[in-house]
DNA sequence: CATCGGCTCACATCATTATGCTACGGCGCC
DNA sequence: GGCGCCGTAGCATAATGATGTGAGCCGATG
């Protein structure tokens, strides 16, 4: 008396990934591939036609993006669970996805086994999320509820570190910062290393993005 | 030298559980028991005194309850991570805890191994939650949020270029973009060169900054 | 059908960043 | 008065990014 298979629909514009996801799901007992599409232009008709229980939705797609696709699905069929797939743990998108009613949020690099777990999890009423994303969701939460302008610690950055982060945001290079502040290039490196640790990032672009999105400037 | 041990502070009014948690943590390499207290009456002084990296906080305690303790910790020391422990997946408490800035939310029945994982997870910037609680958090999230929309200035960027700029903003490296989009590294270079020309910038950081500030995402 | 822009790819070279380790003076806190 | 954090600094190596030049394919447009 097996339960009927869980019907899974994939939206993913990268053909390689789409195919490997399809194969993964198709080859798993208890799951049934309802479809695997490269865009969500026809999402409104796809859903009633394919009747998925769970949708895996890539966030970054040309044309109608995943967030928009999510909204349309939820508008038509609120009961359908939608798990967002993304390469980034980007704050803004997480926020948008969560607001639009996403039921889970995973990174594309999630190993296949975890992905299958996640599908079962949503089916069981859970909400699969990577730890880092879960953290972001928690951080996002209090703000809309209580828009306190709390000058809560700028992510623990020291005054000097904030200053330098500000310059990064302005597009300054290490050299420019060193010259501008009259310190050595190596000192700039030191500061930036610490900023990276504290912000949990690994590149200037990530730091800039995080700074701008979290108002650390 | 090894990384300094993670200092963990426990608030748990049940002596049995408090002791077994203490033993669990005390016997784990990389963790250091900063303290194990039966109430959070002195939370304001406990924190600076014991300087924990992570606090495990029982929600249901006599006197000052866990939510209140959490608030006080966050008021004094926003950088300290607090993981709530609870017996029930009660909606209202989850809501309150999340609003007060909890960094994780686990059930007391969580197996010891998972608990240790969770501590490492918060330390690494994650937010351990049980799936069911994660789902509640998502549901609690205020939906009526009007996402700003700007279809205004495509800034002359082609669709592909905007797409790639989006990835840059997310902190993607050339390599990651190439892999994700299934194109060669050199093609990524080409696109980015053109993006730079069109935006009049000369580095990833400038491009990211400009993109975020002008809503090109 | 010829031209043009967008997308793809290659090769080359130099500049900049990322990361790890080490170190020292100053300051505030037990 | 020892400990930890901040700001400063240097050195070394590996990885990534910036820029130039050139080229093939395709679809749209004139």
TrEMBL record, chains A, B:
Protein's UniProt keywords contain Nucleotide-binding: no
Transmembrane segments: none
Residue positions, PTM 4-aspartylphosphate: 58
Taxonomic superkingdom: Bacteria
Keyword annotations: DNA-binding, Phosphoprotein
Domain HTH luxR-type residue range list: 150-215
Domain Response regulatory: 7-123
Stated name of the protein: Response regulator transcription factor
Species of provenance: Hymenobacter koreensis
Origin organism lineage: Bacteria, Pseudomonadati, Bacteroidota, Cytophagia, Cytophagales
């Amino acid at each position: 008396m097996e339960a009927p298979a869980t019907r899974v629909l994939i939206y993913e514009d990268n053909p390689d990934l789409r195919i490997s996801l399809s194969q993964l799901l198709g080859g798993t007992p208890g799951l049934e591939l309802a479809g695997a599409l490269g865009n969500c232009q026809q999402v409104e008709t796809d859903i009633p036609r394919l009747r998925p229980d769970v949708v895996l939705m890539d966030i970054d797609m040309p044309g109608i993006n995943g967030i928009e696709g999510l909204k349309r699905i939820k508008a038509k069929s609120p009961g359908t669970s939608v798990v967002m797939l993304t390469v980034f743990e980007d704050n803004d998108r997480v926020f948008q996805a969560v607001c639009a009613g996403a039921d889970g949020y995973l990174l594309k690099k999630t190993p296949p086994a975890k992905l299958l777990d996640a599908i079962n999890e949503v089916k069981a009423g859970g909400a699969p999320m990577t730890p880092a994303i879960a953290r972001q969701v928690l951080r996002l939460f209090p703000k809309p509820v209580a828009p306190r302008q709390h000058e809560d610690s700028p992510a623990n950055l020291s005054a000097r570190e904030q200053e330098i982060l500000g310059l990064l945001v302005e597009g300054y290079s290490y050299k420019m910062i060193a010259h501008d502040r009259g310190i050595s290039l190596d000192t700039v490196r030191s500061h930036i290393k610490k900023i990276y640790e504290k912000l949990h990032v690994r590149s200037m672009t990530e730091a800039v993005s995080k700074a701008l999105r979290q108002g650390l400037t």
